[in-house]
Amino acid sequence: MTNTRLIDNFNREHTNLRISVTDQCNFRCIYCMPEDMQFMEDDAIMTFDEIVHLARIFVDLGINKIRLTGGEPLVRRGVPELIKQLGEIKGLKDISLTTNGIGLITQAKDLYDAGLRRINVSLDTLDEAKFEQMTRRKVLSKVLEGLQEAQRCGFDPIKVNAVAMKGFTDDEIVDLAKFARDNAYQLRFIEFMPLDADDIWGRNMFIPGKEIINKIGAVYPLNPVSMNGDAKHDPAKLYQFEDGKGDVGFISSVTEPFCEQCNRIRLTADGQLRTCLFSITETDLLTPLRAGAPDETIGDLIIEAVKQKEPGHQINAVNFVKPKRNMSMIGG
After folding, report:
1. CB–CB of 160/175 below 8 Å?
2. pLDDT of amino acid 27
3. What are phi and psi of 159, to 5 degrees?
4. Per-state percent for the chain, helix, strand, coil, to nearest 5
5. Measured between alpha carbons, how far is 137 from 133 in angstroms, rounded to an integer?
6. How far is C-alpha 119 from the chain's CA centre?
7. What is the pLDDT of residues 208-245, one digit of tens each?
8. Where are the alpha helices (DSSP H) in 128-170?
């Protein structure tokens, strides 16, 4: 199995794995889950030993980047130790983490000491009232404190992910750009995608990436960045601020799908392999692992699942079928 490459039927090689360590979260973002979300039972979730075991198999198959997600990964105890164990896997070049930021207040140093250097913090608004409306929690100040603590610890880059929603953040697009510029954060705007639990997604709440680019560019002139090498697989189209104060990225999954260059696969907290965020099928890896299946058998399951990966998501198709799981259960 060593040196096997994960290539699908469309000749896309997969080197990037997102692993959800929990479906639980201390927020209830309206585009992610309902207020009364029912989480998985503890025994359905992969243990850290199981995550590391599967990660080793994936790396042996060519995965060289892993991002830890949730839910909110930092609500699970021991994530710094997990990062340390993952960092010991030969062949794994990069580990990153996506978080809502609150846990960074107390865990940033431990995460950094464990070897983590890159983080993404979700932050859709700088307005306390809107933040509470979107997350159903009144904790904006704690997220900002977490960002500051991460910066003090030396994290670089610190990316700020913002989901753009009409009626919520459309009047803050430039404010968020200024916030990122002033604090040396890398801002990434993400088009609102139809994975919300409450079915609020619709064109009346959707802001195309080009509209966001134009709004920012009117105040802070932007120059497109050429994407070469591994960067061509980055879902964000990058623009540099003309005055040199950093860059901003735009992930336009709906209006400008990047499926042809996609090199990502996902592992849910309960050990299900998903080849696309919008997959309607999954491959169970946890059950055979717990049953004592050889690594080669699990590797074969992964190889076959990736081989059959969809050509792309069907968000814009007339017959689009929404995944049965919401974002927190799939992994952000």
Report:
1. no
2. 81
3. -100, 140
4. 35, 20, 50
5. 8
6. 10
7. 999 999 999 999 999 999 877 666 778 889 999 999 99
8. 128-135, 140-153
- Token pair 């340390």: residue: 84
> Tokens for 32?
């992610």
Two tokens at 151?
């910066």
Quick check: bond before 157 cis, omega within 30?
Answer: yes
CA distance linking residue 277 with residue 327, whole number of Å:
9
Contact 24, 73 (CB under 8 A): no
Question: CB within 8 A of 273, min separation 6: which ones?
Answer: 265, 266, 267, 282, 283, 284, 285, 301, 302, 305
Digit-coded pLDDT (tens) for 129-183: 999 888 888 999 999 999 999 999 999 999 999 988 888 888 999 999 999 999 9
Query: Of 12, 2, 4, whose CA–CA distance to 307 is shortest?
Result: 12
Do the Cβ atoms of 112 and 89 come closer than 8 Å? Answer: no
* DSSP classification of residue 153: H
Give one DSSP letter per residue of 269-302, joined into a string: TTSEEESSTT-S--EE-HHHHHTT--HHHHHHHH
Torsion angle defined by CA atoms of residues 186, 187, 193 and 198, in that order, rounded to the nearest 10 degrees: 110
Residue 37 is classified by DSSP as: -
Closest CA to 295 of 21, 1, 64: 1
CA angle, 316 as apex, 314 and 318 as ends, to 5°? Answer: 90
In whole angstroms, give the CA distance from residue 45 to residue 71: 12
Distances (CA, A) of 101 to 74, 107, 151, 165, 196: 9, 10, 12, 20, 21
Query: Taking all residues of the chain, what is their mean pLDDT, rounded to a whole number?
Result: 90
